[in-house]
Specification:
By secondary structure, this protein is of the alpha/beta class. The chain is built from 5 helices and 5 strands.
C-alpha cells in the first residue's frame, strides 16, 4: 500500500483528500502547513511515496515545500494542488520539477485517475 502526504492549509480540502485517498486504498498522512508537512516528511520520508502540496499557503508556498522535500528525498513523487489557472500550475510544475498537478475542484474519480497516471508515469521513467 502506498503512502501519500497531503499538505494543505484548508481543513475541508485535507479532509476530502484524506477520505477519498483512503477509499482508494492509500495510507494518508496530512499537515496543515508547509512547516508541519516538512516535519512529517523528514521523520517518515522513507515510507512516503507521494506528497500533494497546495500551491498557496500562508507560511510557505507549495513550490518552496516541494524544493525542501526534494532535497530530503529526490525520489519522492511530488504533486502541486491549486485552484488557480491551469496554465499557472503547469508552469510551476515545470519550473520546480514536480511530477504533476491536481486542479481544484476535482471529483474522486478524477483524483483517482490523476494519482494513478502520475505514479505510472514516474514508474515508466524510472525503468
Amino acid at each position: 500500500m502506498k503512502t501519500i502526504l497531503i499538505i494543505d492549509d484548508q481543513v475541508m480540502i485535507r479532509d476530502l483528500l484524506k477520505r477519498a485517498l483512503t477509499k482508494l486504498n492509500y495510507t494518508v498522512l496530512s499537515a496543515e502547513d508547509g512547516t508541519s508537512g516538512l516535519a512529517i516528511f523528514e521523520s517518515r520520508s522513507q515510507e512516503i511515496d507521494m506528497v500533494i502540496v497546495d500551491m498557496l499557503m500562508p507560511d510557505m508556498n507549495g513550490t518552496e515545500v516541494v524544493d525542501h522535500i526534494e532535497k530530503i528525498n529526490a525520489n519522492v513523487v511530488t504533486v502541486l494542488s491549486s485552484g488557480q489557472c491551469e496554465c499557472e500550475i503547469q508552469a510551476a510544475v515545470t519550473t520546480i520539477g514536480a511530477n504533476g498537478y491536481l486542479l481544484k475542484p476535482f471529483r474522486v474519480s478524477q483524483l483517482s485517475e490523476k494519482i494513478e497516471a502520475i505514479f505510472s508515469a514516474v514508474e515508466l521513467t524510472s525503468s
